[in-house]
């Protein structure tokens, strides 16, 4: 379980990941992928890979095409570096955010809430719950993965590749970056296995048409389906008052719309 605390306006705001049961703290408590549900819970579907076996056993669960691309990337000019906890400096976080911003722009979108994301990543880092992995292809940082982890599981938070910046004439580089992304997930699994973790959480597996290809990509690694639950709890007088205030503001905005 990962617990991240912050305080604003005299109210404790707490993010809790992977909880098996409710915590006793008071405040505005956001549960992410908890193993229990409440009346207001939203289901979260994901895929889980068991990383307790040998490297060959882990790779053996990948489908044939996935194994080929992982093996091919290992023979090419692809290198991966891992950063955990305090090794993730503020400068490294800013480098990732700049990369992530470029990634969103290649999709025709703008990265919103970048300052909030920076603060969140720093809180995860300061709680020794954050990991980065970066793949370099032909001397260029081409793929980033970020993960949040506890003592059992690493959960994919972000995966960003800049293959979309490659032109059609650079199809070899585009294909290599795609293979590097697969190889990185395998390298992530081995890294977290060495840290003593047991599970690799793919960070969601949606069924909607707009994410079907991403889910198919994740399924090629042979994980199993798991449903967990997201919900927010307001415990204590101040947290309850905050909830009422937010609801009142939402009603005002809705009436103005």
Can you walk through the features of this model?
- The chain is α+β, with helices and mostly antiparallel strands.
- The protein has two domains: 2-43 and 229-256, no CATH class; 45-226, Gcn5-related N-acetyltransferase (GNAT) (Aminopeptidase).
- It contains seven helices and ten strands.
- Strands 1-2-3-10-4-9-8-7-6-5 form a ten-stranded mixed β-sheet.
- Helix 2 crosses helix 5 and helix 3 packs across helix 4.
- The protein is globular and about 60 Å long.
- It starts with a strand and ends with a helix.
Characteristics of this structure?
257 residues; alpha+beta; Aminopeptidase; 2 domains; ten-stranded mixed β-sheet
Q: Identify the CATH class of the largest domain.
A: Alpha Beta
Instruction: Could you tell me the CATH topology label of the largest domain.
Output: Aminopeptidase
Structural class: alpha+beta
Count every helix, treating DSSP H or I runs of 4 or more residues as helices.
Answer: 7
User: What portion of the residues fall into strands of 2 or more residues?
Assistant: 25-35%
Task: Give helix % range.
Answer: 25-40%
| Integer-rounded radius of gyration | 20 Å
Question: How would you summarize the topology of this molecule?
Answer:
Layout: E1 2-8, E2 11-17, E3 27-34, E4 42-50, H1 55-60, H2 64-75, E5 78-84, H3 90-106, H4 114-126, E6 130-137, E7 140-149, E8 153-161, H5 171-194, E9 199-201, H6 212-219, E10 224-235, H7 237-256
Parallel strand pairs: 2-3, 8-9
Antiparallel strand pairs: 1-2, 3-10, 4-9, 4-10, 5-6, 6-7, 7-8
């Amino acid at each position: 379980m990962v617990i991240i605390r912050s305080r604003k306006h005299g109210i404790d705001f707490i993010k809790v990941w992977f909880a098996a049961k409710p915590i006793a703290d008071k405040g505005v408590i956001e549960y992410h992928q908890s193993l229990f549900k409440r009346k207001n819970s939203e289901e979260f579907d994901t895929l889980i890979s068991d990383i307790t076996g040998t490297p060959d056993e882990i790779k053996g669960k990948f489908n044939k095409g996935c194994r080929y691309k992982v093996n091919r990337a290992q023979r090419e000019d692809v290198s991966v570096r891992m950063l955990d906890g305090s090794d993730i400096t503020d400068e490294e976080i800013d480098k990732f955010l700049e990369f992530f911003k470029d990634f969103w722009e290649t999709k025709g979108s703008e990265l919103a809430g970048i300052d909030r994301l920076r603060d969140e990543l720093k809180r995860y880092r300061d709680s020794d719950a954050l990991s980065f992995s970066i793949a370099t292809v032909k001397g260029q940082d081409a793929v980033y993965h970020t993960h949040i982890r506890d003592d059992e599981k690493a959960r994919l938070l972000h995966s960003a590749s800049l293959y979309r910046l490659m032109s059609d004439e650079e199809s070899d580089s585009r294909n290599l970056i795609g293979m590097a992304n697969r190889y990185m997930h395998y390298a992530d699994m081995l890294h977290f296995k060495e840290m003593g973790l047991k599970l690799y959480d793919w960070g969601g597996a949606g069924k909607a048409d707009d994410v079907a290809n991403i889910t198919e990509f994740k399924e090629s690694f042979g994980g199993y389906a798991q449903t967990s639950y997201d919900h927010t709890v307001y415990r204590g007088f101040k947290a309850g008052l905050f909830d009422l205030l937010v609801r009142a503001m939402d009603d005002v905005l809705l009436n103005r719309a």
